[in-house]
Amino acid sequence: MMINRAMNPWFPLVKSSSDACLRLFCFSYAGGSATVYRSWPDLLSHKIEVCALQIPGRSARLHEKPFTAMQPLVDVVARELANWMDKPFAFFGHSMGATLSFEVARKLHSDQGVKPEHLFVSGRRAPHRRSPATIYDLPEPQFIEKLRHLKGTPNDVLEHEEFLKLLIPMLRADFEVIETYQYVPGSVLSCPITAMGGLEDEEVGHEDVQAWQEVTSGEFSMRMFPGAHFFLHSAQTQLLQTLSSKLQPFFDRVASQHSRSD
Questions:
Q1: pLDDT tens digits, residue range 156-166?
Q2: Which residue among 20, 109, 123, 261 has its CA within the 20 to 30 Å range from the CA of 157?
């Protein structure tokens, strides 16, 4: 099946590779964009084609209406991914992206009978664990102060009134997606899950990360990194080493199959 990647707003930064035998779909945190993963193709194996998701409301899609609920977003992303299933794939999601990737994996399995080779969830409590108080509907001064506390939005942006006017509707929408999300119990996934957390993360604790073990019947592993909630940036090298290590068994199987066919 030929995939037309030209001008695809959902995956704007894909670098095609004839050597790639696995696609890694990356889901960003609230307020993030596909550019979060811009450097990953150069830091990972050429066997991995990094496909970072760009949802409406940010970057080139800034003037599109953002989603404010999880299930409609899951449905649309799963529909988009249906055209990319000609290669084995894995998911990586951080914070809001972790929950989104989990629900998309469930949707793909129930609707199409496909599953990721591996699901990497980062900086997010397991879906069945309750979230703390919401912030998406706070008055603007309190909302901005919460953003400052989370340390995911640069201070120069928080101090720039015009930027904030553009960004706050998208940020509120993203937080509404994750803060109004309700986990619906059902069949667990069967793919391996690696759950990752930050040792200094005040939002997501060790037990929150460990609880991801309860939503898969497959292999589970956990890794805690130095850093707070946005350790995917500060501990990027260690995180990508873990990701590569966990995907190595897949590449070994592919190599073995090619060897037998030769």
A1: 767 767 778 88
A2: 123
